[in-house]
Structure prediction request, 105 residues.
Amino acid sequence: DTLALLQESARCDTDSDVRCTAIEQLAKGWKDQAWLFEFLWDGTFHEPFERKEDWDDNPRQVALNAILEYYPNHSETRSLLQDRAKHDPDPELRKFAKENLESRI
Prediction:
């Protein structure tokens, strides 16, 4: 089952690039499913990524970007951006969230 494989890869794969790709594919393929916003929201908080190199893709940022793309008007999107702009451990994601907050004013 493709869905189960992507969900498992997004949550558990040891390679952050694989997790990023799985999150992107889930967002593209299942954006109309009610459970996806919660899945992505959860990923922005609980993904264990730690940046080692500047060019590393952060799965939390990929999840947040998918929320911004597919759920820009969701009632929790703005508060999620505010939280990640202040509290995410990755400075690149904090910057991304802050820039997106500023563009929404």
About this structure: The two ends are 41 Å apart (CA to CA). The first helix runs from residue 2 to 12. The mean pLDDT is 96. The chain is about 70% helix and 0% strand.
